[in-house]
Amino acid sequence: MRALRETNSDRNLATLARSGATSRVFNALKVYQDHYARGDEEFTPIFQCRALNKCIIIKHTLRADERRLYEYQGSIATKLIFPFDPENLNTGGKFVFVGQRNWIDIMNIEIGADHSLYPRDFSILQLMATIPSFDPFLLKEWLGREGYHPHESYFGLSNVDIQKMEAFVFTEVSQLVSAAFSGGVGRDTILKLVRKLLSSSHDEELEPLRVVLGLSHVEFQDGLFAWKGFLYYKWMAKTIHPMIPRMTAEMGKVLPKRQFDPDDYEMLIRRRRQITQSLVALFNSVADCVALYNSSFSAFKNGVSAKAFRDFLIDAPNLFIYLGEKMGVLSHVLQQWQYRMRSMGATKITTEEIYVLFTEFTECLSAVSPAPYEEKEDNDLFYELN
After folding, report:
1. Three-state DSSP class for 288?
2. What are the residue boundaries of the structural domains of the chain, listed by start?
3. Is 371 in contact with 241 (CB distance < 8 Å)?
4. Taking Cα atoms as reference points, which of 124, 126, 74 lies closest to residue 98?
């Protein structure tokens, strides 16, 4: 394992530990500490190994020197961070990537997490490494499908978000439900079915939909999960859509004045333009993926053809990973920028911090972004997401 001693205020463990469940951070330590402090004897930690319950798990964009640790060519890794002192996170910690060469041996030697003693824990970690991000809604579903049902505290999706998601999905699928289920279907019935679609329970009430699509039980289960993922990411994309031009404008405002070293100033201008274009290209690739779903779904719900949507659901698990990786990076960059602006403001951020952020965002986006679109004005960013 390698020492992790990061001192920048936005990157250290103390800052990470203040996070709940987000698309990038799964904070097992915070949940464990909160319940321990309350003396909650009914709380069951997610892991059996005590050391794992005191770790922070993040989705991390691999840098060039880190990719040699892997045999596969992924860009996003799952990083386990073990603080030196859980009560004083400013002291730093050690980390290992799930799936890196010899990671199971490293966990045993450095942490005392013996695979033979905690096979369940390692299965959960490998599942968490498979999912493209830690969006609470999807992570809960992902683990639940494999029979793991951690305490609700590990999934920080707020009731407000759940209600918004329900309203979005209700609008999205109400016509489909009416078409797939014989007889008149009222609002309460549709809402009940929407909640079943968003839950982990796939019972006989969804059977008519499976039959109409002509899917096997396994195809239906896998496709339904990926469909929910698409709906969730489509909802997320609509939420972050206005954040991109806002971030682009704010990046222009925090640039140092021209008396700053000319070469460094021009470098930051180029980085800002590169970040903007990468964000646009990444969002547009997400929109392209959603458009594929929209086309097949529209044909089905309008009674034109069920085949396109059936084919989409069969392919959806692979598309879901593709979409999730891109949405995870988009969310990370936009949320990180939003956090910095809230905590410091455009007038207080230093030139050094601008340089660090711009460099991190450039590396992060370059790992997953398609080729940048032709250069456009900042206010002409991307087409609308339908």
Report:
1. helix
2. 2-154, 158-203, 214-366
3. no
4. 126
The one-letter code for the residue type at 139 is L
- Coil vs helix vs strand at 242: coil
Please count the other Cβ atoms lying within 10 Å of the Cβ belonging to residue 321.
Answer: 15
pLDDT digits (tens, 9 = 90+) for 307-351: 888 888 888 777 777 787 788 788 888 888 887 787 666 566 777
**76 three-class SS:** strand
**Radius of gyration, alpha carbons of the chain:** 22
**C-alpha distances in Å from residue 189, one per residue of 170, 185, 192:** 11, 6, 5
Angle between helices 351-366 and 307-343 (to 10 degrees): 170
Q: Check if the beta carbon of residue 237 is closer than 8 Å to that of residue 327.
A: yes
Query: For residues 28 and 38, what is the distance between their CA atoms, to the nearest angstrom?
Result: 16
From 82, 107, 84, 108, select the one nearest 95 (Cα to Cα). Answer: 82
Question: pTM of this prediction?
Answer: 0.70
Distance between CA atoms of residues 330 and 385, nearest Å:
15
Beta carbons of 143 and 124 less than 8 angstroms apart: yes
- Report yes or no: 82 and 54 within 8 Å, Cβ to Cβ: yes
